[in-house]
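Module 6 notes. Inverse folding takes a fixed backbone as the condition and produces residue identities as the prediction. Think of it as a translation problem where the source language is geometry and the target language is the twenty amino acids. Below is one complete input and output pair. Work through it position by position during the lab.
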């Protein structure tokens, strides 16, 4: 049975609600930071935190920019509108595999494509029925996902054994509880979860800023890093990439007036929490300014990537990914929906995005042109 966690859930009771040890994530990823509980989870987080320090994140920016340059630099030159979700998912995939696995598409194209396909098959196992069945000429999605996981683990273990630099080498050097922990966490880090989350948020970013009336918002986001941060907070509030989560009560507890017996599940729905009118005035409106006004300092109310002691360890890295990609787009392009009338109704599973893939046309912005010493924008559609 499940109890729906109200939007004002008491964070001090977080430790009473645990990850379900029978969760499908455990079958697909093994014992990792997101599937364990208690002291084991705390020790894993302590060990892995060193991978995501400010110094480590700063060193990734050059690579992130180079991938943006390769994948986003010709959006206005292709002569057609772009399915932005697909463009951004490819961008996220290259970022993740390059940073976490030292695998570059231009250096090892065949292995890169194999890993991309395997990650996709592995991901589909998360959203399929957990039935491990094979008959002649047919395998269940879950069975195919397990086979993909095994092949990915072989590739990962080879990387951990042979790479002398980058993320795999650093991960292999950490004091983890057993020999399989590094490989299982690397499998988690390169999974399709991260590219899909990035693609979801970047798609929402281009859609909400595509209207002519958002020209001033685009200008401010280009010039003011604090305002861009507020824009990204508002994106996560309105269109969180993941629908929410589920926890199991390890003891009888009363939560916001609801009795939750031991062993029962509590579900939190990000979309509902983020649109609580008692916290966010005009909850359905895109208002980045709220984060410097009434909701200043309330970022902890968002649970796009979890919250509290069990929040995503890579949240800061995701923030770096998003800001670098958004700044790249803002400085180089204006854009609009093409065609202008599209059904942008969102679906929320497996990640949030319009059910009908939206298409966008990009117009290059050339800020290198000047007139009488004063910089000006010369925009030209290609």
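Target side of the pair, the amino acids:
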């Amino acid at each position: 049975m499940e109890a729906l966690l109200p939007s004002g859930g008491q964070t001090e009771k977080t430790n009473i609600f645990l990850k379900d040890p029978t969760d499908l994530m455990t079958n697909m990823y093994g014992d990792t930071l997101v599937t364990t509980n208690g002291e084991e989870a705390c020790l894993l987080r302590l060990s892995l935190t060193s991978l995501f320090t400010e110094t480590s994140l700063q060193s990734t920016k050059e690579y992130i920019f180079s991938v943006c340059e390769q994948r986003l630099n010709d959006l206005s030159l292709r002569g057609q509108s772009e399915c932005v979700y697909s463009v951004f998912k490819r961008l996220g995939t290259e970022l993740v595999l390059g940073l976490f696995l030292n695998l570059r598409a231009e250096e090892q194209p065949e292995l890169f494509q194999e890993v991309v396909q395997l990650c996709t098959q592995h991901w589909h196992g998360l959203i399929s029925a957990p039935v491990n069945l094979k008959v002649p000429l047919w395998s269940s999605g879950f069975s195919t996902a397990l086979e993909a996981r095994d092949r990915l683990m072989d590739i990962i273990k080879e990387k951990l054994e042979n790479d002398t630099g980058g993320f795999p080498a650093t991960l292999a050097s950490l004091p983890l509880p057993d020999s399989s922990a590094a490989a299982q966490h690397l499998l988690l880090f390169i999974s399709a979860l991260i590219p899909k989350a990035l693609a979801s948020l970047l798609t929402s970013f281009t859609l909400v800023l595509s209207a002519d009336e958002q020209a001033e918002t685009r200008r401010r986001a280009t010039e003011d890093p604090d305002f861009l941060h507020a824009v990204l907070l508002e994106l996560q509030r309105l269109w969180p990439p993941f629908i929410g989560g589920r926890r199991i009560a390890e003891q009888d507890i009363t939560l916001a007036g609801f009795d939750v017996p031991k062993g029962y599940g509590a579900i939190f729905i990000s979309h509902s929490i983020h649109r609580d009118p008692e916290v966010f005035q005009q909850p359905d409106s895109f208002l980045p300014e709220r984060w410097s006004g009434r909701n200043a300092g309330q970022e902890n109310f968002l649970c796009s990537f979890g919250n509290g002691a069990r929040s995503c360890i890579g949240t800061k890295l995701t923030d770096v990914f998003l800001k670098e990609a958004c700044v790249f787009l803002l400085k180089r392009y204006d854009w609009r929906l093409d065609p202008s009338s599209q059904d942008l109704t969102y679906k929320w599973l497996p990640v949030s995005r319009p059910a009908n893939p939206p298409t966008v046309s990009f117009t290059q912005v050339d800020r290198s042109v000047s007139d009488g010493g004063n910089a000006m924008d010369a925009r030209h559609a290609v």
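Reference fact for the lab report: The CA atoms of residues 300 and 307 lie 7 Å apart.
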